[in-house]
Amino acid sequence: MLAARGRRRAMALVGLAGFALLLCAAAWRVELIGPRLAEGFGKLGGAVLLMLPPRGLRHLPEWLLALAETVAMAFMGTLLGALAALPLGFLCARGVLGVRTLQFGFRRFADALRSLDHLIWAIVFVRAVGLGPLAGIMAIAMVDAGTFAKLYSEAIENADTRPLDGVRAAGGSGREVIRWGLLPQVLPNMLASTLYMWESNTRSATILGIVGAGGIGYQLSDRLRAYDWGEASTIILLILVAVYAIDIASARLRRRLIEGR
Predict the structure, then answer these.
(1) Which of 24, 52, 197, 238 has its CA 20 to 30 A from that of 246?
(2) 229 alpha-carbon distance from chain centroid
(3) pTM value?
(4) Closest among 133, 92, 86 to 111, alpha carbons compared
(5) CATH number where 123 lies
(6) Per the structure, how many domains does the chain have?
């Protein structure tokens, strides 16, 4: 018994040593270990100094309009994704369709939607509908539909079955079972996920402007390409303020809609 325990301990040590060597090799391969990282931090510090002080306030009305476009892009994309994911989430949940093959197919479809990043979808939709916020809205909606479908289906699968059985025992139809037995349990989780994704999508919508999807991201990428660090820092500050404001707003909405206060 002691010999078997010693072998297991030796195997565990060998495994840890192998993992440590693999980790070091990977870090060296991507140059996480080496002089390049230190040099990069030095250049980053120089770029931060060039951003001080922020300037370009004469462009503030234009930037605020672009920022509002970005927030609207994130909101509309999140809303469309959530609306599309609501029926898809039910179709992806186990035990709803009763046909395992169909449920598997809908799950893989949701996986395909979220497997590509917002940027990839934005490039596709810029090609399809042209430059502007519509491409960004569609890109966010596609990714969110797949993400929300997974989150919603998991909430449905983890719901307590006793309220559902009670509605059925009272003679309720399938629609009534969902309305009175299921939705009161899963809606709080769905709303919390949706509000969080709206906040996250505001940051994603900023990046989408770099590929032509409009909003404040286009203004930021234009200043960075021109090495106008002072105006770029002002735009970054505006983005930070917007994300902070949306974080506060979404937290209050969650408390009001979910906790009732």
Answers:
(1) 52
(2) 28
(3) 0.77
(4) 92
(5) 1.10.3720.10
(6) 2
**Same domain as 172, residue 99:** yes
Query: Is residue 144 a contact partner of residue 201, using CB atoms and an 8 Å limit?
Result: yes
Give the mean pLDDT per block of 10 residues along the chain (261 residues). Answer: 69 84 82 72 72 79 88 90 87 72 82 85 86 87 90 79 70 69 76 83 83 80 81 87 84 71 53
Q: How far apart are CA 183 and CA 200, in angstroms?
A: 25
Q: Which of 180, 197, 185, 188 is CA-nearest to residue 255?
A: 188
- Which amino acid would we find at residue 141? A
Range of the domain at 138: 57-259
Measured CA to CA, the distance from residue 2 to residue 114 in angstroms comes to: 50
Q: Is 131 left (phi over 0), alpha (psi -120 to 50) or beta?
A: beta
